[in-house]
Design a protein that fits this description.
alpha+beta; Ubiquitin-like (UB roll); 5-stranded mixed sheet; 5 strands
Length: 81
């Protein structure tokens, strides 16, 4: 099945792309997708990073199971003042 992935802020810079399509196995989770993306884009492998995950504009946990044509967004921590 195929999902659409979007990156924001530092993740977009590290991956070198804002969005992409990714083929994943049936029943894959958000966490499994993230680990595969870290292999595909080694600069995404940031020790200790805490991300938020959204699927189809709803926040989900790392164990959320993906469906065909889902839109998955990885949101890095933000800081500001």
């Amino acid at each position: 099945m195929k999902v659409r992935v979007k990156f924001f802020a530092m993740l977009r810079e590290r991956a070198g792309v804002a969005d992409l399509s990714k083929e994943v196995a049936e029943g894959s989770t958000v966490g499994e997708l993230w680990r595969q993306l870290q292999k595909d884009y080694p600069k995404l492998d940031v020790p200790g990073i805490r991300l938020l995950y959204a699927v189809n504009q709803n926040y989900v946990g790392i164990e959320h199971r993906l469906s065909d044509r889902d839109e998955v967004v990885f949101i890095p921590p933000v800081s500001g003042g």
